[in-house]
Design brief:
The chain is of the alpha/beta class. The protein is built from 14 helices and 6 strands.
Length: about 350
């Protein structure tokens, strides 16, 4: 099993960072969350002049065995159909990547369909979907390890790709998912990692009606009860692999490796927040590198963000997934960096400092 060495950034520079931000020619604190964000980015990069280089978006796809229990309004065929749609540029994720200049990389982590002939989709398939966690573990320990390693490999490729823009590798990465029924494992992770009643963690997903929501709660409750009977003292990895999808565990690998490389990690909605929560339970210091893009409309997302003391940049009522909410927040991240690099200070502008 891979071990990560994730270091908390040195706090030695925090005084200088805060001093620079406070002395920009504006009332202290007047740019609100932009100031907090600028401080975090400077802190991550250990500099007073931060940069955003070669932003990359990893779109990971995978299917879930629990979908067979009717916990999603969408059939699993939608996973592979959307994956192909992404290669044609027709998804929400494509639009936002184009708008904000992200290098989009589409990866098959475990889609239940043969996508190997599509050259625009990276074939990292571990299996044709996970197993049904109502009855058994979604994945084996070796499959978990493979998903983590794949996420690490994808990050390294982005960080070391210096041909995209200005000869610099990626230092800010975003990850999204495509996988029908993946709100189900996300809800369970939230419940078990946050010690929150499962009912408070389960939402309508892609649009379940009341009867569908009741059925989903019943299936997930039975799944957790089976797991707890068989595993009275589970560790974090046990919980992750029992319920997670290959695309979700791959995303955890992305987040941990990016944090290990001291990159900015953009966190999307409910599902990616669940992956971030799992990553933080494994390595608490990873939290320092996470920027939370938005709070979505899925039930429980606000509570899950609170578990990580996360303040999202946006709340637009989004629940599309794919990383779209995080991508929408990128201009705010860019504004925070421009603020700290381009605004004048009181001394240079010859303005009386009045606080």
């Amino acid at each position: 099993m891979r071990q990560f060495k994730i270091e908390k950034p040195s706090e030695q520079m925090l005084g200088a960072i805060r001093d620079k931000i406070d002395n920009l020619n504006k009332p202290k604190g007047s740019l609100g969350q932009l100031e907090k964000l600028a401080e975090q980015i400077c802190y991550i990069q250990q500099t007073l002049t931060p940069e955003l280089n070669h932003p990359c978006h990893l779109l990971l796809g995978g299917d879930h065995g629990i979908e067979r229990e009717g916990v999603s309004v969408s059939p699993r065929d939608v996973t592979w159909q959307q994956m192909i749609n992404f290669t044609h540029g027709g998804g929400g994720v494509n639009m936002f990547c184009r708008q904000h200049g992200f290098d989009l990389r589409i990866v098959d982590m475990g889609v239940d369909y043969d996508l190997s002939s599509n050259e625009s989709i990276r074939n990292c398939k571990i299996a044709n979907g996970t197993r049904n966690f109502l009855h058994e573990s979604a994945m084996s320990l070796s499959e978990y390890d493979k998903a983590i390693e794949t996420g690490c490999l994808l990050v390294d490729e982005c960080a070391e790709d210096k041909e995209y823009k200005e000869g610099k590798g990626c230092n800010i990465i975003c990850v999204g998912e495509m996988g029908i029924a993946n709100t189900s494992p996300s809800s369970i992770w939230m419940s078990l990692f946050g010690n929150i009643p499962l009912d408070e963690c389960i939402g309508v997903g892609a649009g379940l009606n009341n009867a569908g929501l009741l059925h989903k709660r019943e299936i997930l409750t039975k799944s957790v009860e089976r797991f707890q009977e068989e595993n009275p003292n589970p560790n974090v990895v046990d919980i992750i692999r029992e319920f997670g999808g290959f695309e979700m565990v791959g995303a955890i690998g992305v987040m941990l490796r990016a944090a290990e490389r001291k990159m900015i990690v953009m966190i999307d909605g409910f599902i990616m927040s669940a992956c971030a929560l799992a990553a933080v339970r494994l390595y608490p210091e990873a939290r320092n590198y996470f920027v939370f893009g938005h709070c979505g409309d899925e039930s429980g997302h606000k509570k899950m963000l609170a578990l990580m003391d996360a303040e999202p940049l946006l709340h637009l009522g989004l629940r599309l997934g794919e990383g779209t909410g995080a991508l929408c927040s990128y201009p705010i991240i860019e504004s925070a960096v421009r603020m700290v690099n381009e605004m004048n200070n009181f001394e240079n502008a010859k303005i009386t400092k009045y606080f």
